[in-house]
Input
Amino acid sequence: MPDQRGLSGRQRAALLLAAVAIVVVAFVLISSGGDDDKSSGSTTVKVVDAKPEGGIKKLSFKKGDQVQFKVVSDTADEIHVHGYDLMKDVPKGGSVSFSFKGSIEGRFVVELEDHEQQIAELDVTP
Output
């Protein structure tokens, strides 16, 4: 039987449950983020005229995590991840992806090797 406000106990409980579900879904969506500097997924570093668009991209991972990022470039060059000594060629107007285990702690430069231009900073923390 409805109370004086027009909702039965079951209706109020269902409404409260729906509100909690909405809050949980919103939290999960916000926590998963988008294309930000913290890379739980894959982050894209965009290179325009041999320079990182928007400045040097900050990439942060925990030691043991899978480091993943992509470089999209309008300039042909070799992308070098210092410290891990990983190198891949990116063609003009193309892209290249990196995926490796973050096994070494520290701060590492990612650069366009031939242009000697830093495009990202990779932080691997404990």
